[in-house]
């Protein structure tokens, strides 16, 4: 069972920056991946960036060159540095992790509560 705590959302002007952070806690055997998704009203939740422990970090096309995902493996923390923000980046951003727990052989996925990012023009 995993709990996620997100922070860093807020209001910023277009062209500005925000840094989101997410910390996972609980009985985690190992972290498989940490990433960020976002959702706006009336739209499906979409992947922003994903950082697997083993493998290639991926970014959505609409954030490439502007956002950077990073992890602190010792603290089970993932951050999303968002630069050159655009009004269309306005959304609720959700942390998502895939972990191994001692009670299951299958991976467990967990979502954060979401943090609002608003970019004004």
Structure, explained:
This protein is mostly beta strands. Helix content is 0%, strand content 58%. The protein is elongated, with a radius of gyration of 14 Å.
Low-confidence stretches: none
Q: Sheet bearing the most strands, described?
A: 7 strands, mixed
Into which percent range does the helicity of residues fall?
under 10%
Distance between the termini: 40 Å
Overall spatial form: elongated
Q: Give me the Rg, rounded.
A: 14 Å
- The count of DSSP E runs of length 2 or more, i.e. the number of strands, is 11
Order of helices and strands: EEEEEEEEEEE
Task: Report the portion of residues in β strands.
Answer: over 45%
The tally of helices reads 0
Mean pLDDT: 96
Structural class: mainly beta
Structural topology:
Blueprint: E1 2-7, E2 10-13, E3 18-26, E4 30-39, E5 46-52, E6 58-59, E7 67-72, E8 77-82, E9 91-100, E10 108-111, E11 115-120
Parallel strand pairs: 2-11
Antiparallel strand pairs: 1-3, 3-8, 4-5, 4-9, 5-6, 7-8, 9-10, 9-11
